[in-house]
Amino acid sequence: MMYDPPPERPSESDCCGNGCAECVFDVYDRECARWRRRRRTGRGDGLRRDLLSATKCTPYRIVSARPLGHDDVHAYTFAATPAARGRLPIAYSQHVHVRLADGLDRPYTPVAVADDGCSFDVLVKAHPGGRFTGRLLAMSVDDVVGVRGPYGGVRYDGYDSAVMFAGGTGVAAFVGLIRNALDDDKCETLLRLHYSCKTLDGVLMRKELADCAAYWNCAVHLYLTREHDWSQRSKSFWYNENITEGRISQDCVAKIVDKQQDLKTLWLICGNDEFNRYVFDSLVDHNIKRDDIRLLNNSTKDFEVS
Length: 306
Hints:
This protein is an alpha/beta fold. It is built from 7 helices and 13 strands. The chain has a 7-stranded antiparallel beta sheet with strand order 4-3-7-1-2-6-5. A 6-stranded parallel beta sheet has the order 11-10-9-8-12-13, with helices on both faces. GO terms for molecular function: oxidoreductase activity. InterPro entries: CBR-like, Cbr1-like_FAD-bd_dom, FAD-bd_FR_type, FNR_nucleotide-bd, Oxidoreductase-like_N, OxRdtase_FAD/NAD-bd, Riboflavin_synthase-like_b-brl.
């Protein structure tokens, strides 16, 4: 089977005509250049690029969908259809677009990618009255959606440390990245995750984060903004969990930045637009260079990082 076919050219209707900063035809040109380079160098990697395209939607079926029990967050697994084996060409911290039959789509960052089943997992936050999530939650196992991507992604090589700020489901952008780094025996990058949630019950993938924090080069800090009975709730903390009452304040950011002064640090942010802007502005106020900041989720058109 041909695992690395040339990218499929988008149709004229795939372009919205709004002068996007990165038009679908720009993506196509870039993917063609990468494909030609792989063919020229012969550096194949066995990834199933025939099952995922940055320029066209590919059918994926819903394998499972389950509520996580807090804040209306659901865990979804999507798999290529028909069933296939291999690994999808998704690097951690990249995102894909999930599209429904009526054309609505939303970006999601996979938190896990199967090595032998051509499937991936995402976390979906159901917003009250949300058009997309309302339709998605009404679908059933084996129903089919379209998937396009992957896009974006960050590289942390060349940095002494990576400091990550996550709000709510934004933590999904970092779990895979952290796991991937910890699985690499040669990686000595220090990993620091600062994760803001409303309550302890709202901490997504708490067990996975605790497992990551057991490694020498990974630390996880949780910030709980709406816990009312702190003295009672603190009895539910796990051993060695680092938990702070309240938001990621300016004082918190100042202390975090101060600890990184002697390190070449990559600063990563992923949350809603309000969270992103707050953390970004706080870092800039503390003299962090914009070139060292990456925003993994940004739908505010007038908010530019660099």
